Amino acid sequence: MATDVQVQTGTEVHHEEDNSLWSWITTVDHKRIGKLYLVSAFLFFLFGGIEALLVRAQLTVPNAGFLSAQTYNELFTMHATTMIFLGVMPLSAAFFNFLIPLQIGARDVVFPRLNAFSYWVFLFGAIFIQLPFVLNLVPGLFDAPVVPDGGWFGYANQTSAKFSVGLSIDFWMIGLQIIGLASLAASFNFITTILNLRAPGMSLFRVPVFTWMAMVVNFLLAMSLPMITIGLVLLMFDRNYGTNFYSPERGGDPLLWQHLFWLFGHPEVYILILPAMGIVSEVLPTVSKKPLFGAPFVIFSGILIGFIGFGVWSHHMFTVGLGPVADAAFSITTMIIAVPTAVKIFNWLATMWGGRIVFNTAALFSISFVGLFTIGGLSGVMHASPPVDLQHQDSYFVVAHFHYVLFGGAIFGLFSGIYFYWPKMFGVMLDERMGKASWLIMFIGMNLTFFPMHFLGAQGMPRRYYTYDPGLNWELWNLVATIGAFILALGVLITTIAMIRGLLGQGEKAPADPWDGATLEWSLPTPVPHFNFQTVPTVHSDRPFWDEKHEGGPPVSQGKINEDPHKHVEMPPPSFWPIIAAFCVGMTITGFMLGGGGGEFNGGNFLNQVIFQGVFAIALLVSLLMWIKEDPTPR
Ligand code: HEM
Ligand SMILES: [Cu+2]
Predict the structure, then answer these.
(1) Which of 158, 327, 442, 592 is most exposed, with minimal Cβ within 10 Å?
(2) 13 domain-assigned
(3) Looking at the domain assignment, is residue 603 inside a domain?
(4) pLDDT value, residue 141
């Protein structure tokens, strides 16, 4: 029975043929949207990395004059904002998009056009928040800072119109609102898809761990994004219309911002790490040729982390004087959250224990994820103790901590996913020799960069200072950290080159199941047909494809279950309304930039804002009406 079928679905010809720009602009195919996220997010990751290298270059020696204090503030703010919101989050979304329907046995997500809309809103927001770098190049255009410079958590009231007079905070504030909308729309899509489009027989505990972690993440997004959205709206009102939510001199409270930000900000760190944990939970069993040890516990601990993650936010505020009761409570909840995290670590170790491990690149990144994340996790437990945190807060010890969990954790996990899923996504293998070289150099570079920061922090070096005096004993480890950062960059460069070669189709043609996988995505041909499953399989376990191949289990692979390989599969047609609606919604939100009154209400500016927003809001309405009127019925 033929396995590799090509079926014409209405107007959207199968991808292999049509690679025109228009087909990418109008695509509503989750696999293509996943690839768009992967490429754009990886570019932003590289951008964030270059910003980090500039920051490190400035700190190589005491009193370096490489960057001004203002430029330094802009670079670490944009480094962090870019890495988190334009790097790690959309890289995770790339895997959500490509993998979730394939893992659960679906032909696409529930709302394909909303999925496309999310991507284009993300891209609009990403370009908008980077725009100040370009505007800054025009001499004399602005007489005050425009590049966001208030740090990634923009503490009030340093972000008020009084202390941040330029548009820097407005670009940051409005950019995050637009990007937040993209994540919110996507989260509803994925939650609804996972709960409604599973293949027959795929009960919740037969859903692969990656998809489970994706579900937890999307619930965290849906529940935490409103917190920062409210915080940003209050900040916008303070800056544009003269309200006083955060200004103490007029009865407001800057701590309100910290509570709202970290009510989002701490769940955000799990939004950053859980996708990588999901990938590692797919890679380690596959390369160990063993089922994931205690898979239900790995899933439950992910769910628990999601819940407890909403109850620890004030551990970021142990130094603001909340008092012993609040400090004790948040110290306890923070220590408790270490337990489900540890469960995962021990389950990954138990999975590898006694396994016939294949040390391919994906395996190396996943195995080192376990070690590096544990180092970051241990310093996290230290910070859970308020007296210890009083010493570490705002020092390089904290910078070391979150880079071990974010780089050693999130990035290493995502890189493992890139090497593991690239064959399925792009039809060619990534070069394993380059991959292993990249891993080794990144592993050495990352530890040389971030481990010395523990020492610098313990020796009292504060974060966010653009320089330091000689004689404080910080010279050696700063030099080592900068050298490490450039070694790390070299490792990332090798993977970048391997990916470019992969995008150009260079490299070994990928088989459908290169790693002997256990879940449905590996049972599909490569390249994956536009409609994914010609016949949706019935699932009888959490390792259906492994059981078919190695345990004599019921067939799930298309080659085995396709009754009629030429049966017409109905798929939604391409649409350009998502990109138009995304542009209109982006412009409408951008309109808030016009209403600025320098901390007081300015009628003239407000009128400009309303007119500008009115025009785009009407255009948005029209595009949504056309979207609704569009005949989405599959052809
Ligand atoms: C490419 C390697 C990286 C290097 C060399 C690097 C270096 C740095 C340095 C030196 C700082 C401290 C600046 C200061 O406080 O003065 C910093 C801050 C930060 N980095 Fe990175 N970083 C890297 C990757 C990442 C990644 C992958 C993430 C997140 C996913 C990240 C997130 C952050 C955050 C959140 C801050 C705090 C910024 C702030 O204080 O507002 N970094 N980074
Ligand atoms: Cu936290």
Answers:
(1) 158
(2) no
(3) no
(4) 87
462 Cβ below 6 A of ligand 1: no
What local confidence, expressed as pLDDT, does residue 5 receive? 39
**Ligand 1: does its nearest atom lie under 6 Å from the Cβ of 488?**
yes
Q: Which atom, in ligand 1's list, is nearest to the CA of 272?
A: 30
- Nearest CA owner, ligand 1 atom 40: 151
- CA pair distance 198, 337, nearest whole angstrom: 30
Residue 512 in 3-state DSSP?
coil
| Residue ranges, the chain, pLDDT below 50 | 1-15
Nearest residue (by CA) to ligand 1, atom 28, is 83
Q: Which tokens in the block code for residue 531?
A: 């409609």
Q: Which atom of ligand 1 is nearest to the CA of 84?
A: 30
**Chain segment 105-133, per-residue pLDDT in tens:** 999 999 999 999 999 999 999 999 999 99
Report the pLDDT value the prediction gives residue 4, as an integer from 0 to 100: 40
| Domain span holding position 377 | 21-558
The token pair that represents 183 in the structure block? 């994540």
Give the pLDDT confidence of 241-262 residue by residue, as tens digits: 999 999 999 999 999 999 999 9
Give me the number of domains the chain comprises. 1
395 CB near ligand 1 (under 6 Å):
no
- Is the shortest distance between the CB of 509 and ligand 1 below 6 Å? no
Residue 617, domain member (yes or no): no
18-24: long-range pairs with CB below 8 Å, 24+? 23/574
Query: What CATH number is given to the structural domain containing 381?
Result: 1.20.210.10
Q: Which ligand is nearest to the CA of 330?
A: 2
Q: How far apart are CA 451 and CA 130, in angstroms?
A: 30
415 within some domain: yes
- Alpha-carbon distance 150 to 62, whole Å? 23
pLDDT score recorded for residue 9: 40
What is the H or E stretch that residue 635 is in? none
* Residue 92, ligand 1, Cβ within 6 A: no
Vertex 291, ends 288 and 294: CA angle to 5°?
Answer: 120
pLDDT score of 367:
98
In the block, which residue shows the tokens 């107007």?
A: 11
CB of 62 within 8 A of CB of 245? no
* Backbone Cα Rg of the chain: 25
Nearest C-alpha neighbor of 404 from the set 484, 508, 297: 484
Structure-token match 């997004």, residue found:
221
Question: Hey, what amino acid is at 206?
Answer: R
For residue 77 and ligand 1, the question of a CB distance below 6 A is answered with yes
Q: Residue 228's CB: how many other CB atoms inside 10 A?
A: 22
